[in-house]
Amino acid sequence: MSAATGNPIAPVIRQEIEARLTAIEASEEVRILLAVESGSRAWGFPSPDSDYDVRFIYVRPRDWYLSLAPGRDVIERPIVDEIDCNGWDIRKALGLLLKSNAVVGEWIDSPIRYRLDDPVVAKLTALADAMFDPRATAHHYANLARGALDRWFDGASDAPVKRYFYALRPALAIRTMRVHPGVRPPMNLQALVAASELKGTLVAQIDALVAAKARSNEKSNATRLPEIDALIRDELGRVNELPARTDGEDFAARADTLFLDLVNT
């Protein structure tokens, strides 16, 4: 996937992000394998004041992994000018993938790229597809949604629009997995809506919510929408309908091979 793929990022912002990624490679002595947007801009519902959530996966020189004292497996930079730039070591990313953490898969599928993918990303994608566990992934998304719902969902008051989306997107991911068994759900809201086979009134309400968020700030409230509330509740209650993966392959060994091939080259 090319660095220009996906939703547009202003050229001046993209140039600044690319400069920061290059500076990280130099200062941290790492090689960035994947650099994407992972946040409301990539999810398809940005606000005018949304941060740029830049996420990357990197690899260090081989000898770094041979130290008796394990090094820190994340790189974090403070938010400056709305650019939030953080990354994971490839070993951490593979470990989370083995635990059915959907975040790595989302980064792989992000529609907004800041760098050309390293060739290893294709292997990482194939591994994510092969070891996809629908039920475990559904539980991951259900936990995300419940964390976003917090206290407001059972009340009658208006909902924080940001949290509305943070509950709706995971609910649609669960629905998409029910409609298309065995396929990892896309990260982008519009792609989830297209794959979810929703009725027209729900699609129209979701489109209106997206348009409203595009005009407001991150802390604005949205009028409660009973049909969307019901959709979220229904999907969160159907997690266990999804099949668990039947393990027939040693995915840990396959991840080890990917890691060792990478650090030994």
Would you write up a description of this structure?
Helix 3 (90-98) packs antiparallel against helix 11 and helix 7 runs parallel beside helix 8. The protein has eleven helices and six strands. With 265 residues, it is of the alpha+beta class. It has two domains: 11-131, Beta Polymerase, domain 2, CATH 3.30.460; 134-241.
Summarize the structure.
With 265 residues, this protein is α+β, with helices and mostly antiparallel strands.
How are the secondary structure elements laid out?
Layout: H1 11-28, E1 31-37, H2 40-43, E2 52-59, E3 74-76, E4 83-89, H3 90-98, H4 102-109, H5 120-130, H6 134-149, E5 159-160, H7 161-179, H8 189-195, H9 200-215, E6 221-222, H10 226-236, H11 251-263
Parallel strand pairs: 2-4
Antiparallel strand pairs: 1-2, 3-4, 5-6
Give short descriptive properties of this protein:
265 residues, Beta Polymerase, domain 2, four-stranded mixed beta sheet, 11% strand, disordered N terminus
Q: So what's the overall shape? A: globular
Q: How many distinct domains?
A: 2
Instruction: Count all strands and give the number.
Output: 6
Low-pLDDT segments, ≥5 res: 1-7
Element pattern in H and E: HEHEEEHHHHEHHHEHH
Strand order across the biggest sheet? 1-2-4-3
Report the major sheet.
Answer: 4 strands, mixed
| CATH topology (fold) name of the largest domain | Beta Polymerase, domain 2
Radius of gyration: 19 Å
- Helix percentage range: 40-55%
Oligomer: single chain
Q: How many helices in DSSP terms?
A: 11
Strand content: 5-15%
**Secondary structural class:** alpha+beta
In the CATH hierarchy, what is the class of the largest domain? Alpha Beta
Between the first and last Cα atoms, what is the distance in angstroms?
22 Å
Question: Mean pLDDT, as a whole number?
Answer: 89
